[in-house]
Specification:
The chain has about 120 residues and is mostly beta strands. It is about 0% helix and about 60% strand. The strands form 2 sheets. Strands 2, 4, 5, 6, 9, 10 and 11 form a 7-stranded mixed β-sheet that branches. It has a 4-stranded antiparallel β-sheet with strand order 1-3-8-7, with no helix packed on it. Strand 5 and strand 6 form a beta hairpin. The N and C termini lie far apart (about 40 Å).
Length: about 120
Amino acid sequence: QVHVVESGGGLVQPGGSLRLSCAASGSIFRNYFMAWYRQAPGKQRDLVAGITSDGRTNYGDSVKGRFTISRDSDKNTAYLQMDSLKPEDTAVYSCAANLVPIGGILTTYWGQGTQVTVSS
């Protein structure tokens, strides 16, 4: 069984920073790709940033230059450093891990999400 757990959300003022963590645990054979998505009320879920097992990254246009994704492959953990936060960054941030569990097939596992609120 595989679990994905996010942490690090909260309330921050505009211009501030937050760091989110996403840890995948359990019977993992190989972890290929980890990504952060976000969904604001009444809006669709969008990709924020993703990172492959060999460190290649991609970002949504609205966060380029402000957010940085990284990972510790030994720990199956991805991090999202969010700087220069804006009120429009307010959303529920969810982590997805695209991996192969032991004895299984390539599957996407989702965390429960963490709220990020940017407000003065």
